[in-house]
Design a protein that fits this description.
Largest sheet: 7 strands, parallel
Helix content: 25-40%
CATH topology: Rossmann fold
Radius of gyration: 18 Å
Distance between the termini: 44 Å
Strand order of the largest sheet: 3-2-1-4-5-6-7
Number of strands: 7
CATH architecture: 3-Layer(aba) Sandwich
Mean pLDDT: 97
Number of domains: 1
CATH class: Alpha Beta
Oligomer: single chain
Structural class: alpha/beta
Shape: globular
Number of helices: 8
């Protein structure tokens, strides 16, 4: 690629991407709604509100790939979700269409399927069961990606990220954990694979404990190397196991399923 755009570049996963993806494109353009003062040398920085259609159109110009991490990342009142995750996704895909961007890594979420029991094993085509407005917004984003794939040929990796942290910190994360190095390897494969299409990809490492099946995307050649099992004894010894009926123990979406519908103050 000549220019890769990373939205949400000021966030936690954005910072991991900035440090770990250097060399993936000749130029990396970083963007967020807040100014980025600690950008890596040689990277472009553009402050942009994804809900601003004209600003997003200018942001995407000159890019041939997009790593879309931007938007609201937690359960919030609907107006905030609307601006960042619905209007923002619409603006991004329209800009991608207008400027001929061919491939997008879309950070979707496990909260698209949050109301499945942890005893269930899911393929990429399991019906959506979102656990809140945040999950609904990611379900919407996947629908947008599919429409732009079928109508305009824009390829998207719809990556339902589990829990991307240096290590899992509770029992639920033994199934949902995505090691940062496995995440970075996935981003590289998404943009280097000869063929992508518009698949759902479960964002998890090669965990012994798992709810999700990525067999349908074996063609990408992504092989995660880490396994949450290396932390299982530590978690068993230091983290109390929740009651079997607690949201964190019952639902794949964990505590998001118990979040109240938030209202603007």
């Amino acid at each position: 690629m000549k220019r890769l755009l990373i939205t949400g570049a000021a966030g936690g996963l954005g910072k991991v991407s900035r440090k770990g993806l250097q060399g993936l494109a000749e130029t990396i353009r970083l963007s967020d709604v807040v100014p980025i003062a600690d950008a890596e040398a040689g990277m472009e920085v553009v402050t942009c509100d994804l809900a601003d259609e004209a600003a997003v159109m200018a942001l995407v110009e000159g890019c041939d790939g997009i790593l879309h991490l931007g938007g609201v990342a937690t359960e919030q009142p609907f107006p905030a979700i609307l601006r960042g995750n619905l209007i923002g996704v619409h603006n991004l895909y329209e800009a991608a269409r207008a400027h001929g961007v061919g491939r997008i890594f879309l950070a979707s979420s496990n909260h698209v399927i949050g109301y499945y029991e942890q005893t269930e094993h899911l393929s990429g085509n399991a019906p959506h069961k979102p656990d809140g407005w945040y999950g609904i917004s990611k379900s919407y984003a996947e629908a947008v990606a599919l429409m732009y794939w079928h109508k305009f040929g824009i390829e998207t990796a719809m990556v339902r990220i589990g829990s991307c942290f240096p290590e899992p910190v509770d029992h639920r994360m033994l199934a949902s954990w995505l090691a940062p190095e496995d995440y970075l390897a996935l981003v590289r494969r998404v943009f280097k694979a000869p063929r992508l299409g518009c698949p759902v990809i479960w964002g998890m490492s090669d965990n012994d404990a798992r709810w999700w099946d990525n067999a349908h995307v074996d063609y990408l050649g992504w092989r995660p190397k880490r396994n949450s099992a290396e932390f299982a004894e530590k978690i068993a010894a230091t983290v109390p196991r929740p009651d079997k009926d607690a949201p964190a123990a019952r639902w794949q979406g964990g505590n998001f399923t118990a979040e109240p519908v938030k209202k603007e103050k």
